[in-house]
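G., the chain you wanted modeled:
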Amino acid sequence: MKKIIAAFDGLKYSTSTRDHALALAKQTGIHLCGYFMDDPVYNSFSLYDVVVNQQADEQLLDTYRQADDQLRHASALNFETNCIQQNLAYTIHADKNIAHQQIIHESIYGDLLLICKTESLSRYPEKTPTRFVRELLENTCCPVLLVPEKYTPVQKIVLLYDGAPASVFAIKMFSYILPEYMLLETEIISVSGTDNMEHTPDDKLMREFLTQHYPTAKRTILSGNPEVVIPQHMKHQPPGTMAVLGSYSRGNVSRWFRQSMADVLMKESDLPLFVAHG
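Predicted structure as tokens:
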């Protein structure tokens, strides 16, 4: 049985992460692990404001901390209740450690890490992609499924392919981890920088691969700058479309799935993104 790790900020509980995780687990029979990030330096309140502006004593600080603990507990209880109601195999992990380091450690033992693309583990608003998500994508030890703030059932898959190993690796990992989604409508997109749009890198090898994994996939070759035409194309996809891309590579960087490609799609689309690097 495979294992999905759904990462949550218990103080800003993402129902979208929950609903995407529940749907995946129900459709695939995957074991679901709810990981609640409880960073010791992260609170819903400003420690400076409480101590300096309110001249708080230790008792008032304890009151604020207890309120945060109750909120985190309520979030974990909501996740657990939903898993029980849907008869899913699940576990719950919560560690009072540095969240970034601990979630990377958790990813070593997971097949897929699912997290909301706006997750910041901060009281302050941040633009997408947040610093927390960028660092997670750079260091994770398993593929990551970035989900939008609103849940929509997945109805279509878009595979982004540029001929580089990272993009092929992402497509393979997607087919291995979520083979049930191979039955959905699938489109594979490549970009040609010239007007000659008849061939893509390693065209023959990729066609053989697709015949085995995605025999009914529609192939689309766009022309232009990938960082422009890919987001434009994705904006016209129907709700419930999931994109699969290789990005945030360690070492060899893809020719056009550079680190910024995942960032651009997070900024300009509200579609879930399956991201993997070799």
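The chain has nine helices and ten strands.

Shout if anything looks off.
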